[in-house]
Amino acid sequence: xxxxxxxxxxxxxxxxxxxxxxxxxxxxxxxxxxxxxxxxxxxxxxxxxxxxxxxxxxxxxxxxxxxxxxxxxxxxxxxxxxxxxxxxxxxxxxxxxxxxxxxxxxxxxxxxxxxxxxxxxxxxxxxxxxxxxxxxxxxxxxxxxxxxxxxxxxxxxxxxxxxxxxxxxxxxxxxx
Length: 176
Known about the structure:
Layout lengths: L1 H29 L2 H61 L2 H25 L5 H18 L33
């Protein structure tokens, strides 16, 4: 408000200065040099007042900016204060010991679940694994028994094969 009032005051002074300058010219034309000189002194004094008013306006604007910035700072500090209070309340609810206890319980629960998963998945002991490997080797040996090979020598010349039409049909192999 003060700034606005000072600006209005400046406008009035500027109007007065223009009027007095015109009046001083008229007085000089009429030959009234002393009155013109007095009027110019008054004009000079008002110009100095105008400069002082400009400085006051600058000071007021600077003060307004400082106040606005301080208000912002106060809001930030209030926000920090509220945040700090919230953190302190949370720390009172959750102590380090409580967090360590919860972490320990969680690790125990994970280990317990792992053991259950192993039991359900049918995890075998090392002895069971060894028995399974022995059984696998025995099955593999059975499959490796080959049919007997004829002991007579192969003929030197292979007889010519008969046409496809006269070939005997292959008998189906039984699955074992």
